Amino acid sequence: MPAVDPTLGLTPEGVLASRLRHGENRVTRPPGRTVFDILKHALAERTLIVLMAAAVLALGVEVLRGYLVAGYTPHLIDGFAILLAVAIASFVTTINEARAEKKFRSLEDLERDHPVRVIRGGIPSSIPSSELVVGDVVVLDLGDRVPADGELTDEPQRACVDAAGLSVDQSTLTGESEPVRKGQGDLALLGSTVVTEGSGRMVVTAVGAKTEMGRQMERLLGATPTRTPLEDRLAALANRMGAFGAISALLTFLALLGSSIARDQLELSLDLSTGSKVLELAIVAITVLVVAVPEGLPLAVTISLSYSVVRMAKDRALVKRLSACETMGAATVVCTDKTGTLTENQMSITQVWVPHLGGFDARDAQALPAEVRARIAEIARLDSTVLVSKAGRDVRALGNPTEAALLVFLEKLEVDATDAEVVGRFGFTSERKRMSTLASIGGQLQLLLKGAPEVVMDRCVGAELAEATRIAEAMAARGERTLALARRVVSEDLRNAGAEELERDLELVAVVAIRDPLRSEVHKAIADCKRAGVEVKVLTGDHRAIAESIARDLSLVEDGDEILEGSDLRELDDVAFDQRLPRLRVVARSTPTDKLRLVQRLVARGEVVAVTGDGTNDAAALDAADVGFAMGIRGTAVARDAADVILLDDDFSTLVKAIAWGRTIFENVQKFLLFQLTVNVVAVGTAFLAAVLGFGVPLNTVQLLWVNLIMDTLAALALATEPPTQKALDRPPHGRVEPLLSRPMIVQIAATGTFMISVLVVAMETSLFIPPEATHAEKLTFVFNAFVLMQLANELNARSPRLDRSVLDGLGRSWVFGVVIFATLVLQVMIVEFGGVVFRTTPLSWSLWLRSFGLGASVLAFGFCLRWAGRAAAKRAVP
User: Fold this and answer.
1) In contact, 186 and 165? CB cutoff 8 Å
2) Which of 85, 335, 460, 714 could form a disulfide linkage to 506, CB 3.0–4.6 angstroms apart?
């Protein structure tokens, strides 16, 4: 172990020298996908493989025909255009996925780089784990993740449990299921293990790749990423659409073949010319198949998730598991802690009550008698695992906020430190609700204890305990947290005694009131949850009176609602528990076991449950919930590892923002699905009807690929990146099993698709939109142009998958949407006016352009009428 004074730690010069010699505390991870890997994966898509094969075959036949037939000029444009479309689609997909990969990796780095408490130059501070160096003195407490390999010090500050060291969970490295006790003979700690009992100081002996975890990580080849549930559902939908496309392609090919034969455009012979013509029809049919398969859906999900998780991180919510993005939008119940989540977690002592002396205002600490101040100071200083950092007059405590409030108050007491030595410590747990320290003070052995008043006073003796209980309840009724302080002089023969024997016959020193104000945004966040149909249940270890005061302040409790204590719930069987659940709003004096049972019963009732947690014992509830939110500041390593999302600011309002993002992700995917399936239905339907009616091929291969591969990719970018609006919380949760294709979406796809197909068929078969004198090339170009402009208009309609919402809601906040629409329109104009060689178009007159825009506008008008009818039907359905 490096020769470092564990009370002082490294100097700034020592930190720099150690970093230069031993390196940084960064573990090499399995490499992410390179751009080449992503491109290779994109080109491996079945639809693109089919297109590339068709392009190569078409080019081969044309080259062969040009070689064998004298005077024949090979038509190579279609083949090269298909390859170009494939290249563009692959390039855009690769760029988007590469950006998503980079964003996910940066967020992963943010989650891994957790804060660590260290002592440098004798001053406690908090630094990112990546800044640790060999020789650093790290302060560890219950629930902390060990940030690097190291050894425990032999200093008395290494607080012990039952005077016998601390325990760590090494299962992540060794597979051992039982915690390992550390002490004499085994002082080594390994990085990534978790402190499950006790606390102490560790001197770092190895960092980064030289740690045991680093060596194991270097041996990893990287796990195959799993798909989210939403991606699985989309893949299943794509398979069904693929079957629909295969049938449509076959029917289209047969219709085109029959029409060509009937119109004497194709002779039934075995020569190369006939084969080339049949191949051309087959390529059109293959393109219909490609158009029918919504291969843009995975890209839309990737873009939506990557965009959302980055924006959520800016909103202080760090997503660890992508599936949580989808689930949290469906949340119906939120089970939340109070302290630090609904409140500021900046506690300060407001009042001190002393037996026989009465109450004192904490702002005038010097009014307390000197003996009382000395005893409070001894408990605050010695019975604590919190570090105090001083910068001038600024005093900052690092650790448990209740203990921190007591230590900050210690500075006001202005009591000189006594000669004392910590002998042993019995740590605080949610079950014990107390913490005690055995210390030798001035040569006298004393037990110093603090904890919940009802627990502490059960172990005290004296005449004023009833009054103390009344005072504590009055403090709690004002919404203040209460803490009782007690002491006992212990004989030497009890030096090695256990907690139960030592923690009795205590003398009550004081009862203190601690206030933690509500966060400024929490009232609005609770109101947003009510508006969104999300029920909020609060669980707290505080006294019932405190919990009720907070709940009523937040308007969480209404007539008929219940506030129970954890002990009340533990007396109920599951049937009785379930009967109380709908009215239950607050659980006071709750334990992690109570939280776990509440989550399990809610899930069993079919609720989609989100839960917050910060402690090691909350891990089970975080894991059992549909979405677990861990606290990024107060949360232990165990809680953060078990969670799906980390609230970097520990704020309840951030959780509500995450719910809005979850709903928006689901709706954005629905928007793109609505847009692309309408495109697919119209393209396939138009191609088939044109073939049946003998019109020929209204949209050639290159035009169809422009619509399907390029326009859809741009649409995915436009529709999948829309941020949440206030209306995201104006409706009930979509629930656990709401289908991707809702009934209103199916109605829109069927109605709008039928309308557009009808318009295009009328354009092909009549002179209603196209003058009789127009050439066949102008007719084909007009149909193609009208088709694209109608899809662009429908992209605006697709912003509202619900018939009761305006397509203009939040449009001003989505600048990407406007840019994509404008860029697509510019490209379409260039294709029609200047892309004739590749796209087989001819320039259109202003009259035909205006008619094309008119048909596009008609889709907007149709969508408006459809939503108006939907709203009218919804109003009639309300009794």
Assistant:
1) no
2) 460
